[in-house]
Amino acid sequence: MSSRGIRIKSTNEVDILRKAGKILSSIVAPLQSSLTSGMSTKDIDLKAEELIRRHKVVSAFKGYRGFPGVTCISVNEGVVHGIPGPRIVKDGDIVSLDIGIIYEGYYSDTAVTVAIGNIAPEVQRLLDVTKASLARGIEQARVGNRLSDISFAVQSFVEMHGFSVVRDFVGHGIGQKLHEDPEIPNYGRAGEGPVLKEGMVFAIEPMVNMGTHRTRILSDKWTVVTEDGKPSAHFEHTIVITSKGPEILTM
Fold first, then answer.
1. Tally of domains in the chain
2. Range of 107's domain?
3. CB 232 within 8 A of CB 210
């Protein structure tokens, strides 16, 4: 079954995705708490790889279109798709971790932005607003709503607080593939797009910039940074739409 190409997941598939999400959150929690000043982004990725191995699941990212790490690690002005390497994180930095796994043939995807030590109050506000905008978007993932209700909820909340949402990268459906239909922009007018139905599974992921929404890709062909060099934050959950409302699978 589908709604404009959006796959509706069966009860059995949702059960598998629920287990996948629980495993992924069990990987992210210790990874997040292990971050300290002086680590390289490669160190962080190796820790993530060890945790994935320990949980006997497969990385969704390593080798995906040639990506070399298990985690996309983006620091400060980094928006998304940062390649793990020699960069050292230090007090005052923010580090976005985007990580996915495959469990019994199904994908789960999540992201969090972590403060290293003491960060500037305005940067903390960026993190708080981005995380809250994800909650606003998820709240709209209800049977009978339209897809763009999610997008509008994110954008309106972010812009109300003086920040901007990234246009070049979006959320997505997820299941037996990492990226399934539909694309879920973090901007748009309410009341447009497909009607949401029970059994749809989405990865909703606001990327929010302190300055301009514009981004550029570095020469490594992966790392996305803000055009103006100002900080960016990224939070993501995989969710399923149920008859009782949205259920966060990666909490």
1. 1
2. 2-248
3. yes
Could you tell me the pTM of the whole model? 0.96
What does the alpha-carbon distance between residue 164 and residue 155 come to, in Å, rounded to a whole number? Answer: 8
Q: Rounded to the nearest 10 degrees, how much is the dihedral formed by the CA atoms of 47, 35, 104, 5?
A: -130
Q: Is the dihedral of CA 235, 115, 232, 101 positive or negative?
A: negative
With vertex at residue 45, the alpha carbon angle to CA 205 and CA 224, rounded to the nearest 5 degrees, is 45
Q: How far apart are CA 251 and CA 249, in angstroms?
A: 6
Can you tell me which residue has the tokens 């972590």? 114
Q: What is the pLDDT of residues 91-131, one digit of tens each?
A: 999 999 999 999 999 999 999 999 999 999 999 999 999 99
* CATH code assigned at 45: 3.90.230.10
Rounded to 5°, angle at Cα 231 from 170 and 247: 40
182-196 residue pLDDT tens: 999 999 999 999 999
Those residues whose C-beta lies under 8 Å from the C-beta of residue 118, and which sit 6 or more positions away, are 91, 92
Contact 84, 222 (CB under 8 A): no
Distance CA 30, CA 36 (A): 12
